[in-house]
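Table S5 (text form). Sequence records supplied for joint modeling of the two-component complex.
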Amino acid sequence: MIKVVAKFVIKSDRIEEMKSVCSDLIDETRKENGNISYELYQDVNNPEIFSFIEEWESQEALDQHMETDHFKKAEVHFGNFAAKDPEVNIYSLVK
Amino acid sequence: MIKVVAKFVIKSDRIEEMKSVCSDLIDETRKENGNISYELYQDVNNPEIFSFIEEWESQEALDQHMETDHFKKAEVHFGNFAAKDPEVNIYSLVK
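The corresponding structure-token record, covering 190 residues in total, follows.
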């Protein structure tokens, strides 16, 4: 199992669009083979900060996700919404 | 429910100490009222990057956690182990 945290800082005037695009992405991603969980969070202290927290059965499943049409479509939107480069970390559980 | 992601970059020669200190912290924290989950992850591409991914019933439960002896003790160690300031975000679920 791998865990992904993908953190975005979104321009303040694009926050509602961000949520809308993510909603569709989440619905499609949860149908994928190898996805265990895929959730979007918003910072309680700064509404411009969002993180996807994701669980995948394997790196291969994550790689396949990034080749899907729904991911590639959302990625273009994220590039327009983001105030800076996203911060993506792939993790394994220590404890 | 709130979710916390607390990300640390640890000096390469302190990684094993970091894991040891975190192990005790995790055991104690999981016994706390209001803690739903408390897990430590290490970046698969950069072993100096660690994140706690935490779930708490409320902000109050998280506030109480930060007043415990086990948290304060670990915090001193983290200050010594860290290569830079930690990045802590408190999140609510969007979807």
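Note: Residues 2-91 of chain A form a domain with the Alpha-Beta Plaits fold (CATH 3.30.70.100).
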